[in-house]
Structure formats: C-alpha cells, structure tokens
Amino acid sequence: MKKKIYITLGILIALAVIGYFTFPSIRPGSNGDANTIYQTEPARKGSVSVSVGDTGIVQSNQTAFLAWQTNGKVATVNTQKGMYVEEGTVLAELKSTSLSQNVLQAQVDLINAQSELDKAINNSEARADAHLAVINAQQALDDANKEAQSKLYQRASQETIDIARANLIEANEALDKAEKKWDQTKNADADSLIYAAGLSQYAAARQEQQRAEYNLRYVKELPDALTVEEANIEVEQAEAQLLTAKQNWEKVKDGPDPDKVLAAQVRMDIAQATLDQASITAPFAGTITRVDSKVGDLVNAGTQAFQIDDLSRLLVDVDISEMDISQVKIGQTVILTFDAIQDEKFDGVVTDIALTSSGVGGSANFTVTVEILDPSSHILPGMTAAVEITVNQLDDILLVPSRAVRAENDARVVYVLKNNQPVAVEITLGVSADNYSQVITGDLKAGDLIILNPPTTQDLQNMRNSMGTTFGGG
Q1: What is the CA radius of gyration of the chain?
Q2: Does residue 474 fall inside a structural domain?
C-alpha cells in the first residue's frame, strides 16, 4: 500500500514560469570581479492534497449469472448482448413439449390452486352454507334433547297405566278359560279338530297375556340401561355437530378464512415456481452483458444462459491498509486513472468502508468501495483502476521547493537570496510531495526568493576566509 501526497498551487499565486535570476556576488579568490549565478524560485502559497490508495477492479452496481433450472430445448431467446431490459423481462423460454412431466403437471396444479384461492376469497357461498349448518345443528340438538327427555324422565299417564292393567286382567281371564278348555282337549287325538282348536286358543291366550303383562310393566317403569345410553349418545353427537358448525361459521362469517387463503396461495406459489423453471427472467433492470443460449440448444439444469449487469453505477473496491484506514471517510473525493484510458482522470466518491479486515496474505487490509461519478463508455467492468482517495486537504499554506531544503546542525534550512547574498533560514517542515514541502515555522513569507542551488558549507567558509564577510546571517 502506498500513500501519496499531491500539491496543487492555489489561486492566491498566479501560475508563472519559474525564472532564473542572476545576481552578482564575489566568488572566493576572484578579487571581487567575477559573478556567480543562483537559481531561485519564490516561496508561495498553495494547496496540498493528502491521498491514500491502491488499484482495484471496476465492477457493476449489481451482477447476476442466470442459468437454466430444468432440462429442455430452447424455444425462444428474446434478448441480445448489450440490450437493456427491465426487471421481470422474459429473456428465454424452453419448448413446452421438451419439459419434464413435473413441470407440465405444475400447469394443472396452478389452475386448481387458483380456483381454490378464488373460492376462499369469494366466500359468500361458504358463509351461507356455514350459517345454515349452524341452524340445522342447533335444531338437531334440540330434537335430541327432547327425545332424551321423553325416554329418560317421562312416565306414562295414570290412564294409560290403568288401561294396561285392565288389559292384563282380561288377558289373564282369557288365559284361564283357554287353559281349562285345553286341559279338556289335550288328551284327544292330535290330528283331531278338537285338539287343534284347544291348542290354538290356549297358545293365543298365552301370547296375549304375556304382551299385556309386558306392556303394563313398561308403562310403569323407567327405560332400561341400553335405552338411556342410546339417548345420551344421540345428544352428545348433536352437541359435537353443533360445535363443529359454529367453528366453521366463525372462520367465514367475517370474511375469507386466512388459513384456506394461505394454503391456496402456497400451492399456487409452488406450482408457479415449478413453471418458472421453463423460462429465464431478469431479476433486476440492467444490461445483458453475456448470452450463452441459442434457439435449439438442448440444456440441462445449471447450464449458464445469461449475465446481466446494472451499469447505472460503476464501483471499484480497493484495499486500504490498517495504517491508513482511519483516515478514510464515506463521502471523501477520489481520483481514478486507468492504464486502458490514457491521459484522463475520473472523479469518484467513497460510498462504503468495510467494518472488518479482509486479512488477505497475513496483512490487515480493509475494503473501501468507490463510486465513479463521471463514468465514460470506455470504462468497462473488469478494468483495473488506480484509486487515490483524498484524505486531507491543506489550503493556503506556505510552500518551498524540496530540492532547496538542506540539513545543517540537526536542523532544516533553506537559503534565501537577500541583498544578493544567500542567507540561511531555519524552518520546520510539514507534508512534502511532488518536489514541494510545507513550511510550518520559519522566518519566511510568500515571495522570498529560495535558492535552488545554494552554496555548500565549504563555499561559504571560503567566502568568509577570503572576504571576511559573514554569510548566513540576517
């Protein structure tokens, strides 16, 4: 990772051709009749840009590689490379007769699920049926309760009991008569009419007496256990049917049943997802940058068909070292250059900064995303860009040529031409780049002539020895 610092001269000093000034001075050993030439440049106010950066690869705002989801034969291809398409555009379709059975069945499933959904949503008929079911169930329960009451708790009236008792008395008397007659005829010939008549009358009287006896007992007593159990079961069944009817009514009385609507919608989604395998659609609006399918191709699930890129924004990801990442902020300006595009610079802006290090190669680098603000048709995804992020801008500062700075006695000095003589001025430097350095402190001002080729220490000593003059003073 490289850190670069660029200096741009401010508008405070008009850009001018650096002149060369010739000032006479006494050359040592020349007896004062020779001239020496100093190259000078004035100290000036300007601007300094501090930048960090590296190289990165241009990428589109969004990229998708589209592949077939099932087997079949390509029937249509509706796009071509370089075409812009909207989200949802059908890019290609498979021939229906080449599709697998499950895809074809999905068409039927979709129709059925749609019908179920419509019925669930438009539930006026279902509401009417559910309401009627509640009314009928309530009536059935009422009837069952009445029937149970009549069987379980109501005895016969006294009149009915008296009649049954009278019938039994008559039956007993008739039985006695028939029995006596039978006693008189039972010893007769079994084939005789007398025997047959006596036996028939006796049997009939006996049967009638048993019936009258059972009837009297029935009207006098409560129902038996089996009758009670049957009556209870009928009531419980009626109650359960009423509860179910009410639950169904609650689901539909206020509108569509959400469970039925959801179930139908899910079945539709499943069927539609299967049908969608027979075509490829654009997942977002963008430009088709690659076409790999042709009409008539036999394809399998996973066969790549298209690449689509959202070229509305071009981005560059660049790795910045942990030493510099703290200086990078979202919104900072960026300069981008391309080897493939000579003599042009493009503006950018920092749009995103990774929160964690990529940790590639054992070094801690953080990915910074830059958006190109003025993209050209010549900039294509995949190109390499040199990225310089301006992390600091210093304006209206005093600058001196770096070549004029000297190290003397553990200090930094520049020589200024004053009264045709070189004078050393101690300075403190700030940032430096492109052959210029920032002066933080020192007895300098804009316009002072900085000597680019100052005399060496030995030259100055020779001058002192020869002329007895002190140089380097004020």
Answers
A1: 56
A2: no
Rounded to two decimals, the pTM is: 0.53
User: How many of the other CB atoms lie within 10 Å of CB of 455?
Assistant: 20
* Predicted confidence band of residue 417 (pLDDT cuts 50, 70, 90): very high
Question: Tell me: the pLDDT tens digits for 302-360?
Answer: 999 999 999 999 999 999 999 899 999 999 999 999 999 998 999 999 999 999 987 66
Q: Are 80 and 180 in the same domain? A: no
Residue 415 near residue 425, CB atoms below 8 Å: yes
Averaged confidence pLDDT in the chain: 82
**What mean pLDDT do residues 224-234 have?**
76
Q: Please, are residues 412 and 426 in contact by the beta-carbon 8 Å criterion?
A: yes
Could you tell me how far CA 341 lies from the centroid of its own chain? 37
How, if at all, do strands 384-401 and 44-67 pair? antiparallel
Residues 235, 139 share a domain? yes
Dihedral class, residue 403 (left if φ above 0, else alpha if ψ from -120 to 50, else beta): alpha
pLDDT, residue 270, reads 83
The reply to whether 140 and 219 lie within a common domain is: yes
Same domain, 388 and 344: yes
Distance CA 398, CA 441 (A): 10
Q: Which amino acid appears at position 347 of this protein? A: D
Among the listed residues 239, 231, 238, the one whose alpha carbon sits nearest the alpha carbon of residue 151 = 231
Residue 246 phi, psi dihedral angles, 5° rounding: -65, -40
Q: The domain that contains 269 carries what CATH number?
A: 2.40.50.100
Q: Which residues contact 219 (CB under 8 A, 6 or more apart)?
A: 155, 156, 160, 161, 164
pLDDT of residue 214: 87
Higher pLDDT, 229 or 72: 72
Angle between helical axes of 158-185 and 193-220 (0-180°, round to 10): 160
Cβ neighbourhood burial of 389 (10 Å; 0-12, 13-18, 19+)? buried
**Residues spanned by the domain of 382:** 53-63+307-392
Nearest to 291 by CA among 56, 47, 65, 15: 65
Domain for residue 473, yes or no? no
